[in-house]
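Here's what a typical entry looks like (DUF2516 family protein):
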Amino acid sequence: MLITGFFGVLALLSWGLFLFALFAFIDSAIRREDAYRAADKKTKPFWLIVLGLAAVVMKFFSIFSFLPVIGLIAVIVYMVDVRPALKQVSGGGRGGRRGGGSSSDGPYGPFSR
């Protein structure tokens, strides 16, 4: 009974890691190619290959292998370093500046000092 529960938790963890890698892959696929160059990061095809391989490894290899750990490290690097830089360059993120506002604009217009 205990072993069955343990392997159930590992299966859920494996699925969670796969979905995390899949999210990172889809996110990298929808970003513009020039944003990668502007953010001074590796190219879009590089990240698509790395994150795609990470998702495949996390889906088909045991969580006790070292390959999912390497894939997880790649996904974390993308999510913590590359993704925020791409969002900053392309003006994305919460609230974005699509309306052409300046950095001193508040939610209802410019801050008065």
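The first strand starts at residue 105 and ends at 106.

More examples are in the samples folder.
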